[in-house]
Amino acid sequence: MFTVDALLSFIIAIGLSSVLMLFLDQNESLSQEYLYQLSQDMMEVCSKKADFSKSCFGLLSELGLHYSFSRNGAKEFGEDGTAIVRITRHFSGNEIELRTWV
Amino acid sequence: MLDITFAFFVILLMFFFFLSVTALSNRTMVEDYQNFVKEKRLLDASEKLIAIELADYSENTLKHHVLSLDKIADFGRLSLEEMKQNLLLEDYDVYLSLRSGDKRLLSFGNAVGGALVRRIALCGEEVCVLEISAK
After folding, report:
1. Residue B25 pLDDT more than 90?
2. What value of ipTM does the predicted structure carry?
3. Where are the domains positioned within chain B?
């Protein structure tokens, strides 16, 4: 026999599973890959110019990204924040690192 | 008896609700997938431009991220349709631009909104930004 409790439980279960289906079955966005690609480009360009200055990396800010640059573990310029992408290179005996986030 | 009838209709109602949510979810998944494909194609197209199509070739080496001004000029002579075919973007309305500071080195189509991919490279000695968007 149906009871009000059983009916309510059923309604809640169906409702919750419907909402979960809407939000969980989604494809991953490429935004992280895109951020990585753009950061890699910036590192590549500044490496090719052998220019690891604020002005070279400043283009990232113009494109709406946040970043910080460090050399041998010491931050040289950029913002504070939680990085999503981290790219490390060895250049002229130094370990340089670019961290970016949106 | 009335309770059972009421419960039956509520369950039927919930069943249709569930069906409609499933249909909506499927539609969202299809749209997500189409966007995913579009973004991936834009990324591939930008990679092709930076690493092959416009990349400087000298000393038997193709220099990715270093774009040749001659190749940029040649590419700029293509029509919009030829450019889209070249980059496998025939299915979309495409806007492409390459600028170095305020100087526009390449421009195809009109701004269309939609998915956007930006890439950074060297055009000669200057840093330049490639933008491709598709709708």
Report:
1. no
2. 0.71
3. 38-134
Q: Look at A45 and B11 and tell me if their CB atoms are within 8 Å.
A: no
pLDDT band at A99 (very low <50, low <70, confident <90, very high): very high
Which of B29, B120, B126, B132 is the best mutation test for A, with the most CBs of A within 10 A?
B120
Q: Which of A11, A22, A42 sits opposite B25 (nearest CB)?
A: A22
Considering only CB atoms, B29 lies closest to which of A1, A27, A28, namely: A27
The chain B residue lying nearest A10, using CA atoms, is B11
Instruction: Convert B18-77 into a string of H (helix), E (strand) and C (coil).
Output: HHHHHHHHHHHHHHHHHHHHHHHHHHHHHHHHHHHHCEEEECCEEEEEEECHHHHHHHHC
- Give the per-residue pLDDT at A86: 93
Task: Tell which of B21, B34, B62, B64 to mutate to test the A interface (max A CBs under 10 Å).
Answer: B21
- What is the pairing mode between strands B61-67 and B115-123? parallel
Helix or strand holding residue B100 (H, E)? strand B94-100
Q: CB contacts < 8 Å between A and B, how many?
A: 81
Tell me, yes or no, if the pTM score tops 0.80. no
pLDDT tens for each residue of B13-23 = 877 887 887 78
B66-B71-B76-B79 Cα dihedral, nearest 10 degrees: -120
